[in-house]
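Treating backbone geometry as a discrete language has practical consequences that deserve illustration. No coordinates are needed to read the tokens, only the vocabulary itself. For completeness, the protein is quoted in full, as a sequence line and a line of structure tokens:
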Amino acid sequence: MATATYPPPPPYYRLYKDYSENPNSAPEPPPPIEGTYVCFGGNYTTEDVLPSLEEQGVPQLYPKDSNVDYKKELRSLNRELQLHILELADVLVDRPSQYAKRIGEISSIFKNLHHLLNSLRPHQARATLIHIMELQIQQRKQAVEDIKRRREEAQRLLKDAFVTLDG
């Protein structure tokens, strides 16, 4: 019984048979996907929106207003997480049957921490881009200064060479 190591190519390659002679003969690429789509059984969306904790079925442990003090809330959730982990250790020693409730609370705190951190991602991206652009501006200014310095040095050398030829 003979088997092929690789499957045959899909029939799409026939659409490109005249590409070397006429690059315009190839079909246009498909338009980008907009909205929701299914991939490997999961529903995805092309919109870059951070879903709220309520949409994910997680209770929000920090204020819901738009002016959240991220530093204060992250510290508060971190302290609460540490306390719940200590309580989990205590529960595992004294009442091992009640550990599931503590694990659920710790999971909720972690999800809140992650949600707060993910809501800071756009700010982080902007700050990173600003930093990169400032570095590029600084490098270009240094390159311009280096070119000016070398030009002045070349002009001085040429002037010295003409003076010695004339003299």
The mean pLDDT is 90. The helical segments are 70-94, 99-119, 121-166. The beta strands are 36-39, 42-45. The radius of gyration is 32 Å.
